[in-house]
Design goal:
With 335 residues, this protein is mainly alpha-helical. It has one domain. Helix content is 82%, strand content 0%.
């Protein structure tokens, strides 16, 4: 099977999964196209425009932070080059989940010849820090709004996972141990042949470059600036969520605490293994808003419009970034 065919099949699979979840969101929230369009037309466009501006600013700060992380590797692209790579990464995430991280590293290699395995190490560290911030925010939300949000996390994550694994934990553990033992035996038995193979050499080179990129983060010239950028990025994410809530009559009065909660559950929705969080985001934010007395209609409209506007912005800006990157590459090749 050719690489292009595999990529096409992966795209179709994840897109179909997202569309299926989107359909479930329509069914569960009792929405139809006309209701969504009425909600969009009645929205306050000032708040939507402000949310878009804040979103773009957060992406710019993400590019600044990434540049700082790349500096110890010996090369520092311009902020615009890193911003374009970040936006192209978001664009590719709509095609295949988590493909954006590799794609933006590939774009940066084409523009600055920074090895993909090294820049990918910095991206992993970046994601680890963002996950720690998300975990911290989740704990804060649960501490201050435990009665309200425990039911959401229990019904949405814990119970479905428990039901999925129920009664099979012991069997799964046994199979996992057997698989690990078999892998260890194969590695030991054929270690000399594996060490001589081209595949092992490539894998070893990949790991070394990845480790180099990972370690570079711990030799930052201004580590406090890294934490400042991270703080600003998440503050902007929060303000972005709050602005979208302010844009609709049904969600404008929920307050700042609800905005923080929706930021958390919405981020979990975007992290779901579907293209661009399609479907998962809509269901999560609608269920989250329902805890604050927002009707399923208003919660659904909020989810569809906020996600749709963000998606259009990424498609537009990511597309422009891709064109600018191609033009820059052709000019450099022609010089």
């Amino acid at each position: 099977m050719s690489i292009k065919l595999k990529q096409a099949l992966r795209f179709v699979f994840f897109l179909s999964l997202g569309v299926g979840l989107l359909y479930l969101a329509f069914v569960n929230l009792n929405l139809d196209y006309n209701k969504v369009m009425v909600g969009f037309k009645s929205a306050n466009y000032f708040w939507i425009a402000t949310a878009l501006l804040i979103s773009l600013t957060s992406h710019w700060f993400r590019a600044l932070r990434w540049n700082q992380m790349l500096e110890p590797l010996g090369k520092k692209p311009t902020t615009l080059q890193s911003f374009n790579a970040v936006m192209i990464g978001y664009l590719f995430n709509f095609a295949i989940p988590r493909m954006g991280e590799v794609s933006r590293c590939g774009i940066l290699y084409r523009s600055n010849r920074i090895p993909v395995n090294q820049s990918l190490g910095t991206v992993v560290v970046e994601r680890v820090f963002d996950m720690l911030i998300l975990l911290l925010l989740t704990i804060v939300v649960l501490l201050f709004q435990f009665d309200m949000l425990y039911g959401f996390f229990n019904d949405t994550f814990i119970l479905p996972l428990a039901q999925k694994l129920g009664g099979s934990n012991g069997l799964m553990f046994i199979w996992l141990m057997l698989a690990l033992l078999l892998a260890a035996f194969v590695l030991y038995k054929f270690k000399n042949k594996l060490a001589e193979s081209a595949l092992f050499s490539k894998f070893s080179s990949l790991l070394q470059g990845f480790a180099s990129g990972f370690k570079s983060v711990f030799s930052l010239k201004q580590p406090l600036l890294f934490f400042f950028y991270t703080f600003i990025i998440w503050i902007l994410y929060f303000l972005n969520t709050w602005c979208y809530l302010m844009a609709f009559n049904g969600t404008a009065g929920v307050g700042l605490a609800a905005a923080l909660s929706i930021l958390v559950v919405g981020t979990f929705g975007f992290a779901a293994p579907v293209s661009g969080g399609i479907g998962a985001y809509h269901i999560f934010v609608a269920k989250g808003l329902a805890l604050y007395g927002v009707s399923s209609l208003d919660g659904g409209v909020f989810g569809f419009v906020s996600h749709g506007v963000q998606m259009l912005m990424i498609l537009m800006v990511g597309g422009i970034s891709l064109i600018l990157t191609i033009i820059e590459e052709r000019k450099r090749d022609a010089a």
